[in-house]
């Protein structure tokens, strides 16, 4: 009889502890997956000023376009910083998505102008930057898929019983995916036919 009472006391505690640990592990995996996106998007955003500088001499009359690319890149970088500080925040993730989409549109205008300029289109520097951006996009797309998978696992653990009890008790908030396909920035093709951005 004593064993049954002891088992009835220990079993719920063990189940709750296992549930908490599983939720914590999923949350850590989520943060690690976003950290990878942070690294890759930072690398992509760091390439944008080089792209602008490589086109500046050829596109002197397109000052507004060049300034828009730099401005939206800075906004996307700020959105990334906010999302990195709290990857579970819907507002931060949506800010990142919106800022990156604006950057994609500005880059699209710049790429269209570059493709219309024969000397710029054949510039080794421009071709190298286009290749680096396309390569960065492939890595970002893979990291986004891994992050979205981590979000799904975390949210599933958070919403299932008894994880929902642990989530409520310890303040585990829902996480939000980076929308596949066009988020946070599906941008037009680059000079070499690759994509300019698709987080």
Can you tell me about this structure?
By secondary structure, the protein is mostly helical. It has one domain (2-170): de novo design (two linked rop proteins) (Up-down Bundle). It has six helices and no strands. The chain has helices at residues 2-56, 63-85, 90-116, 118-121, 124-159, 163-170. Helix 1 runs antiparallel to helix 5, helix 1 (2-56) packs across helix 6 and helix 2 (63-85) packs antiparallel against helix 3. The longest helix is centred in the first third of the chain and has 55 residues, at 2-56. The radius of gyration is 22 Å and the shape is rod-shaped.
Question: Topology, pairings included?
Answer:
Layout lengths: L1 H55 L6 H23 L4 H27 L1 H4 L2 H36 L3 H8 L29
Features:
single chain; 199 residues; de novo design (two linked rop proteins); 6 helices
Global structural class? mainly alpha
Second rung of CATH, namely the architecture = Up-down Bundle
The CATH topology is de novo design (two linked rop proteins)
The chain-level mean pLDDT equals 81
Number of helices: 6
CATH class: Mainly Alpha
Q: How many β-strand runs? A: 0
The CATH H-level superfamily is LemA-like domain
Give the C-alpha Rg. 22 Å
Q: Provide the number of structural domains.
A: 1
Gross morphology is rod-shaped
What percentage of amino acids are in beta strands? under 5%
Short description:
The protein is mostly helical and 199 residues long.
């Amino acid at each position: 009889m004593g064993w049954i009472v002891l088992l009835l006391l220990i079993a719920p505690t063990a189940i709750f502890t296992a549930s908490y640990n599983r939720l914590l592990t999923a949350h850590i995996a989520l943060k690690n997956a976003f950290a990878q996106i942070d690294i890759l998007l930072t690398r992509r955003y760091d390439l944008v000023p080089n792209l602008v500088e490589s086109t500046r001499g050829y596109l002197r009359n397109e000052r507004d376009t060049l300034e828009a690319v730099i401005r939206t890149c800075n906004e996307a970088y700020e959105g990334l910083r906010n999302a990195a500080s709290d990857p579970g925040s819907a507002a931060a993730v949506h800010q990142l998505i919106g800022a990156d989409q604006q950057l994609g549109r500005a880059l699209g205008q710049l790429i269209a102008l570059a493709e219309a300029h024969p000397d710029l289109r054949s510039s080794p520097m421009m071709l190298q930057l286009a290749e680096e951006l396309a390569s960065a996009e492939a890595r970002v797309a893979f990291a986004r898929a891994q992050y979205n998978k981590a979000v799904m696992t975390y949210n599933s653990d958070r919403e299932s019983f008894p994880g929902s009890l642990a989530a409520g008790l310890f303040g585990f908030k829902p996480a939000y995916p980076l929308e596949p396909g066009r988020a946070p920035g599906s941008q037009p093709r680059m000079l070499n036919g690759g994509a300019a951005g698709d987080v």
